[in-house]
## 1
Amino acid sequence: MSRTDFYNDPNAPIANSIKVAVSALVCNEHGQVLMIHRTDNGKASIPGGGMEVGETPAQAVVREVEEETGIDVAVTGLIGIFSNPEHVIAYANGEVRQEFSICFSADPVGGELRTSTESKAVCWVEPGELANLDIHPSIWLRIERGLERHDDPYYT
């Protein structure tokens, strides 16, 4: 389903839902970041998605990373809770969702890179090359916080 992100936009539609989402900053042994090219908005992103009934947030992020990238991960920490009422996501079905994502750090433990219906490209990216990608500001915040390795998690 296609989506349009509105960020600090006074003309954005009003949110009519909120859903728990999860994401992960996955770095390999070379310090490279696991990135996807999303099919729904065309932007580069860390992997993630919606939590399902019956899952913990950590279980959800492990599932989402594997579904979108083919990489199995072990959660290693909490980067933060990212919820900004000024970031809403409008979907083709009329849902307008306020951003709410729990972002984890994770290590790869297996699997093979592959795409999915949600990712048209999957790759390991050097941190210095991230600036060359089209990354939404809300995802940039998660990446920056994760790479800076703060002692305390981020939250709004």
## 2
Amino acid sequence: MLRSLGQRPVTGSDEDPRVTGLRTAVSHLRRRLAAYPAEFPDRAVAEDELAALAAMAAGGTPEIPRLRSSLLLIAGAIGSMSALASALAEVRDAIELFGTPQGD
């Protein structure tokens, strides 16, 4: 079921909206990557890290250093493929909402 931007879930969930945004962005990039027809050397790395991000988002508030590490691995694996750039930017933006780790 699709919701318009800004609408709240009907269930009244207390879930962190950053986690919801991350889950949505990761899901979008996973779909775009699955539909991408060309094979590339690090595709499995990108798919594995996206699965890890999805699991972190499903588990509640993820650890910021792990989020950033996954983002770097995904960005490195996908490279400069313009077909995936906007979906990758969505994931990056969703991760940036979590801020920086303490001590940075």
## 3
Amino acid sequence: MLTTSVVMANTPNQTEVTQASNQNNIRVMTRPEIVGLWGMELPNNRKCVEYYNFKSNSDVVIKSGEEWSTGIYDYQPSNDQNVQLPALILQVKYDNNEVDCSGLKEDQSGEMSQYFVKWKSPSTINFCANDKGQQCFATLRRVLP
């Protein structure tokens, strides 16, 4: 009988049940497959790695040597990658204007770039100049999911 009394004393009223069920809603959110930390080794004597951190809220942080910049990106997947590759548009909002992995010191604030993403595997992508996957100039490898 003591157990029943405890259960009845702890039974929430209808309002609390409704609130509790609202707190337990499950939301499924998809994120672009490019989200995560990627690294690109530059072929120079310093073995410098340029990092791209694509966040799920469309922000991007880029770290290259002493330079770091922040911006926004838009990843546009393709329905058929055999016909057209996914597009990636990057806009740099802030650049600290320090020397990057290539040895250059250039303020890229305000610059906008468009690349086409050729997926070699789930952990390796190429940035290409056109949507057919030709003229690929950079290989990035996934560091963190």
